[in-house]
TrEMBL record:
Transmembrane segments: none annotated. Its cofactor is FAD. Pfam families: Acyl-CoA_dh_1 (PF00441), Acyl-CoA_dh_M (PF02770), Acyl-CoA_dh_N (PF02771). GO terms for cellular component: plasma membrane. It is an enzyme of class 1 (oxidoreductase). Its EC number is 1.3.99.-. This is Acyl-CoA dehydrogenase FadE17. SUPFAM superfamilies: Acyl-CoA dehydrogenase C-terminal domain-like, Acyl-CoA dehydrogenase NM domain-like.
Length: 383
């Protein structure tokens, strides 16, 4: 790993810290989808106008053209300042946009990247299906080439923010005779196209951010294909590399803040008088420091490659398990007060319930371990 902070990096950190202190929103995000979208986009726009939108994105598309080290500094200071969740901007900012940067045409980059950064476009991901969630190569949603269009029929599920989105990174099977990862195509789908039906799905945390999406003869211009017809698996792997790697940097840095707040709360509630609690929190702190070291190693590696490698899967597995353990420890310390969803610990309860999704979203931990075994350890494929 080769990662160090220069004097200029330290100056950038001070600038970020001061800007966040002066600009972090003081209003609460609504749970109403339309209001939540406006809130998320307004915050994204403010970051963009402040010079902190797309820190590591190319300047020709509205980014700052800075290093991933600067992006890491932003996330670290953002977490310390208690910055809000990115909300419906997540897909566009963290893996839809980066995929277009790495694999999109010049016209696709020009059309979408500035709008994503400026808080003018919301994206969602159309990968998982009822019969192909963890097994992405098994997708069945069809895209038939008719003239200069793809005609799409099928269904996607667990699509975060589909009911708020303008565009979707959509993976379809364009060769009906193909199997597994062959014959797939990655395309940009306009979510306002005729034939699209979106149905929100309520999750156990009480929110409706996930959706089922249904396609009935949805027509997509072939100009929206990223890469080539039939070459979608390679593009999708780029997308997942960003989603599991650099796209998770903010969440990784946030965990350390969550844990330190938990330790402070345990101290106030007298929980540290129990030696077993003290040991548990000490172990969690050690694991948070390990996660930080892994994140730094990933940033160092990603700085030398266009797309994050399999190290992203290692971080994804470790992060998902650690997030669940930290939020479970939080519920243990809150004790019976954690039964009241409308009480003073409502946010903590919601985060605990949502943490169950961390070992599923972006590819299950079982799939990540297969990737690590094959691509990092060189073990035979798990067939």
């Amino acid at each position: 790993m080769d990662l160090s902070f220069t004097d200029e990096d330290h100056a950038f950190r001070r600038e970020v810290r001061e800007w966040l202190c002066a600009n972090i929103p003081t209003t609460e995000r609504s749970t109403d989808p339309a209001d939540a979208r406006r809130w998320d986009m307004a915050w994204q726009r403010k970051q963009f106008e402040g010079g902190f939108g797309g820190i590591a994105w190319p300047t020709e598309y509205g980014g700052q053209g800075l290093t991933l080290v600067r992006q890491l500094i932003w996330f670290e200071e953002y977490a310390k300042a208690g910055g809000p969740d990115i909300g419906c901007a997540f897909v566009g900012i963290n893996h839809g946009g980066p995929t277009l940067i790495a694999r999109g045409s010049q016209e696709q980059k020009r059309r979408h990247l500035p709008q994503i950064l400026a808080g003018e476009e919301v994206w969602c991901q159309g990968f998982s299906e009822p019969g192909a969630g963890s097994d992405l190569a098994g997708i069945a949603t069809k895209g038939r080439v008719v003239g200069d269009e793809l005609v799409v029929n099928g269904q996607k599920i667990w699509t975060s923010f589909a009911h708020m989105a303008d565009f979707q990174e959509l993976l379809v099977r364009t060769d009906p005779d193909s199997r597994r990862h062959h014959g797939l195509t990655w395309t940009i789908c306009d979510m306002h196209s005729p034939g699209i039906t979106v149905r929100p799905i309520a999750s156990m945390d009480g929110l409706e951010e996930f959706c089922g999406v249904f396609y009935d003869d949805v027509r997509i211009p072939l100009d929206n294909v990223v890469g080539t017809i039939g070459g979608g698996w390679s593009v999708a792997m780029s997308t997942l590399g960003f989603e599991r790697g650099t796209g998770f940097m903010k969440l990784q840095t946030e965990l350390s803040v969550v844990l330190e707040e938990l330790i402070a709360r345990a101290t106030d509630l007298g929980g540290l008088a129990d030696p077993s609690v003290a040991v548990q929190l000490g172990d969690l702190r050690a694991d948070v420091l390990a996660l930080r070291a892994m994140t730094y190693a990933m940033v160092s590696s990603a700085a030398r490659a266009d797309v994050p490698g399999p190290l992203g899967s290692m971080i994804k597995v470790f992060y998902a398990d650690l997030a669940q353990r930290i939020h479970r420890a939080q519920m243990d310390i809150v004790d019976v007060q954690g039964l009241d969803r409308g009480g003073p610990f409502a946010a903590e309860i919601r985060h605990y319930l949502y943490s169950y999704a961390s070992t599923i979203g972006g590819g299950t931990s079982e799939v990540q371990r297969d990737i690590i075994g094959e691509r990092v350890l060189g073990l035979p494929r798990n067939r």
